[in-house]
Amino acid sequence: MPVKPKRHLSGYLILLLLPAVLFLTGFGYAGPKTSPQADNSYERRIYERFLNNEIQVMRKVQPLYDPDDEQPYYIGELFWDNDIEYCYLDIDGDGREELHIRDSGAYYAIKVRNQTLEILHEGWWISEPVKTDTLCGVLFHETSYTSELIGFITVDAEGNKDSTGPYSWYDENRNGIVDETDTFNGRGGIDRTEFLRFKEEHTIPEEYQLPWQSRRIKNFANWQDAYADFIHTLHVTGHLPYPEESRYSLVYLDADAVPELYIETGGVSINEIIVSFYNGKVRSINRYRAGMKYLDRQGLLYNDTGSISHDHDGDRGYFPCNVYRLSKGTFTEIGTGWYEYQEDEEGNLLYEGYYWEGSPVTKSVYEMRLRGLIDIRRCVEPTTRYKEKEIRKILTQDSR
Prior knowledge:
Structural class: alpha+beta
Radius of gyration: 22 Å
């Protein structure tokens, strides 16, 4: 089974996400396990209608900027992928199961309340509903090049939420080990022992893994319709912070006749998105930094912000480089490296430490590992970049 591309959160991005995480979580307490005798047939019928794109759920468009702006959404408007996974689990302790849905980028917990649907919780791809003997709620956990973020959210029957954490670790000395010289952040201040204890307490045993089911929520006759729908979803869900600055290209990453859609969002946390269409499936990867280049029709691409970014697009003193393979519509990360920099008195960047797959290496070894995966000398960037109206017109013309 192909491995999903890693979604890396830098130390700087973690700090950006924390206010959003805390805003979405609120405060409260999660109750006991769902009773095995609970009859959830009524909720299941409503959830099934939602999964079938028959009814809508209310969602806040931009909760940080306009918390009162709620709009109705069908399930097909909430997710980038057209294939999702779903399961049922009671995480608020009221004895009734909620519907949990996820794709490669987003997670939602949907609840029936007063005969209508509401979003109990919305999270990133790093979110996971959990119910064990000691935990009941939503875990979010992400590892990055030199950092790690963990937190846990509990929800009560009234929809009130409480956040334990988030706790984060930053590998100050770049040795790949959580030791006393590193930086630890958490509510009230934490140290290495507290971070490791929290991480161990929130490691989910295998027997509590959920029985996720797969489902296709949207069908497309062709790639043109699929890409037009993807662009529409980005706009209506508010995932483009500066939609007037977004740009689009059609590129040929692999050897088939279907192009891929490249999107430059103009944002920070989601900078570039690449979308594929294969046998009716829509898949995407998002990069929070610019710099994607690819081998034309070879199915290989890489993202190296250091090669194009001398305006500090790299944060916390390093530039990442990720290599991906596109095969049958699926993106797989096949190599990960990064290198550090310092700034001299004139503002010039001085490159120093190099790392590959988490281990320190010399510059020559770093370059050799990269060359072993992709010939960067032959890589190209997307050329013509269209505005939204222009790319929509192209997609409409091509679909005739």
